[in-house]
């Protein structure tokens, strides 16, 4: 049976999915028979299990699975584990999974960096200034060392941190002094990157650590080893190798696919593969091969965080965020989808098969049934990249019926910490002082990060509605990951969006030509936000620690385990985080209270949960106002209240005739 037809009937021919571009593709006859997550969500006949949802289902040994209800004596585990233990164990394992993903990514980048430093790859050491700064940060004196020797030394030092058993991760010393003192007081400094994941998996094994507080301390150590360790290593070394992002204009949404070019989408996370593909698209052999099949060239477009990596550094377009990965293929206009690791739905394989699209896996850590595997190796990066692109070119003549929606949006991305410093403070005395001063004088109410995934559980445009409401209330918004792509689709990543900002935020950002929402990169690049927060503390005037700052983070549509690790390293560094639409410990009041209340006494920040954009905005603005009050900056600032119509009125949001809801 053609499941897509069943789906169509059940939904009047149009799926429930965010963004007009997606709807146009999935409702087009070219998509007939292609099954995507939008179809699978509406076909699900069983409600998600409440025990699984609330974190109180345990299958850590074969006496279970045990389903636990807090406070009900007969509903504890066969081993006697109660809801708090099980919820804390499950929460910890989510963090271990998420952190491990970033750690393996970070290790891959560090090894590629070291190979590059030794001249074994086609990449270069592009940002020598940052290399020297980084050397100092990791305790290496760069004086009188040439770039190659220094890069090898830095690479070896950071590679060694993955297997380190004792000591300190060098980048953690970048944190504000007060934050470091807090970690010392609590005894939660990570000792090595990998060690913390292994210990967390051990502690959550049946019959080991059974106290939720003890488990969550180790979960924090593991999350910190992600944010201030592996993720920061990945970001910093990628910048040194491929260039530190600077503001760059490009486009997002499915309309970036081209009719007359070979469309190659690159999906996943690691920049080494995408960089190599970008390096070969103009190779004379590639150009010639395109000409032979009647194509004007190769159009490389990103999906998910690989998209953010090449968008930030090369200005290449993003075809889609996480929820769009199968929709991009359902255009029938993609010759190859090249994937590496993380966030790649298995569903892309049957959708690719439905068309002429070649799905190509490139990492031996991530193989997919039905895909062709071409192993990537940074030592032979250009050869492998060329082989992949040639595969795609051979598919171009097979392109059949297809439909590319006319939806694409201009965005400005590339707001690394260095760029923000430079834009705000000027070339010769880069500084966060203008930001701090404008927060202190009230023109800017505070800073909010909207990070993380998009998710088929949430069909409302929460990211977009929330970003609009925050900037209207003079909150500077930082974005990363797939949230950035969704917000970009709506035009909020361009300076023109300042028309939607409050007067104070507009006045400050107009002067420097910045959009009101700053794209800071992929999900590993949340480490850039840690550095930005640290700079704000070190600049002075807004308290002594990250927990004093009028700053807050949120992930309204979290999907990946990585998001939980990210959230926890923010909370444990002093920045409050709100998740939505749900929180994975809700089955245990004890653990949820610990995360939502007691963490305040430990880290100066807590978790919270919200569902709608309005609820997120209210909670976030209230928290920012409270921080301002604590700092004595509580001059009353009017709140712009968004009603339902304002939140929904995304198509007439101040940018004329463009975006998901208008012509491309
Ligand atoms: Fe059940 Fe305990 Fe085994 Fe978990 S560890 S499955 S609660 S018996
Ligand atoms: S890709 S982790 S869906 S942001 Fe980083 Fe997007 Fe979330 Fe994956």
Structure overview:
The protein is α/β, with parallel strands linked by helices and 664 residues long. It folds into 3 domains: 70-242, Substrate Binding Domain Of Dnak, Chain:A, Domain 2, CATH 1.20.1270; 254-398, Rossmann fold; 415-556 and 610-651, Rossmann fold, CATH 3.40.50.2030. It contains 26 helices and 16 strands. The strands form 4 sheets. It has a 6-stranded parallel β-sheet with strand order 6-5-4-7-8-9, with helices on both faces. Strands 13-12-11-14-15-16 form a 6-stranded parallel β-sheet, sandwiched between helices. Strand 14 (551-555), helix 23 and strand 15 form a beta-alpha-beta unit. Helix 5 (83-117) runs antiparallel to helix 9, helix 5 packs parallel to helix 10 (212-242) and helix 9 runs antiparallel to helix 10 (212-242). The longest helix has 35 residues, at 83-117. The chain is globular and about 65 Å long. The protein binds iron/sulfur cluster and Broken Fe4S4 cluster. Broken Fe4S4 cluster binds at residues 269, 304-305, 322, 343, 452-453, 481-482, 522-523, 559-560, 562. Iron/sulfur cluster (SF4) binds next to loops.
Mean pLDDT, all residues: 92
What compounds are bound to the protein?
iron/sulfur cluster, Broken Fe4S4 cluster
Rg, Cα atoms, Å? 24 Å
Number of alpha- plus pi-helical segments: 26
Q: What is the CATH third-level topology name of the largest domain?
A: Rossmann fold
What is the count of structural domains? 3
Q: Which CATH architecture of the largest domain would you pick?
A: 3-Layer(aba) Sandwich
Estimated share of beta-strand residues: 5-15%
Q: How far apart lie the N and C ends?
A: 36 Å
Number-wise, the strands total 16
**What is the highest CATH level, the class of the largest domain?**
Alpha Beta
Major β-sheet annotation: 6 strands, parallel
Low-pLDDT runs of 5+ residues are 650-664
Roughly what percent helix? Answer: 40-55%
The class by helix and strand makeup works out as alpha/beta
- Order of strands across the main sheet: 6-5-4-7-8-9
